[in-house]
Amino acid sequence: MAFDIFVLCLFFIVGLLLGFIDIIMALKLPLRKREFANSCEHCNNKYKWYELIPLVSYFINKGKCPYCQKNKSIWYVILEILSGVSYSLSYIFYGFSYELIVMIILTNLLILIYVSDFKYLIILDEPLLLFSVIILICKYMFFGFETFLISICSGLLIFIFMMVVRFIGNKLFKQESIGGGDIKLSMFFGFTLGIKLSIISLILGSFLAFPYAIYSSLKNINKEIPFGPFLVTGLFLVFILMDPIRSFFRIIF
């Protein structure tokens, strides 16, 4: 029991820290600023080391930059907390397993895409490539070469499918219907879930994006809809509910 509590606390702290790093990467990499974010994005004053502690520094400084007093977004703190909670729950539900590794990857991907796509309308290539490689390596190590090969083929087929959808959408609407980043993300879906569950997660992500699209239309927000956060949320939910979904389709078909 004591060991489990220790591991849970450790997972929460690591999740909190990596969530903070994910946010920094999502804010810096789209601007090609690869140095560690040790300065305020408003006044460029450099923070001291203790002012970079995730969560703690936010409350010590009352949600403001200690130099220019500009407010820091509470959403970043919420994402850090969710990252820590997700890491801990992943250990509770899956223990040390393949599913734990995937849940950790999906948690980091969720935060990265939420920040970068909502702020810049960009899905970062570097983390997506890294996570894809890790997923495929894990597939090979845990399930063997056949599953590894099927996962690669699934990713490529989903990628081709989304390219076709994009081509048709562009012709119908006379504008870009699906972003390139969303198509690359869909290939990651195939690597992780296979073809059937990937399509389900893409459909779910589209439904999740629908209320936001209506809200943007009503508010006359003349801005491209960041589709990535809703897609990756669909992926996250489908992975968590993967067994019930498979059981449901076995009953239906």
Number of helices: 10
Distance between the termini: 43 Å
Give the DSSP E fraction (strand runs of 2 or more residues). under 5%
Q: How would you name the oligomeric state of the polypeptide chains in this document?
A: single chain
Number of strands: 0
Helix content: over 70%
Summed over residues and divided by their number, the pLDDT gives a mean of: 86
Going by helix content, strand content and strand pairing, the class is mainly alpha
What's the overall geometry?
Answer: globular
**What is the C-alpha radius of gyration, as a whole number of Å?**
20 Å
Q: What is the helix/strand order?
A: HHHHHHHHHH
Largest beta-sheet characterization: none
**Low-confidence stretches at least 5 residues in length (pLDDT < 50)?**
none
How many domains, as an integer?
2
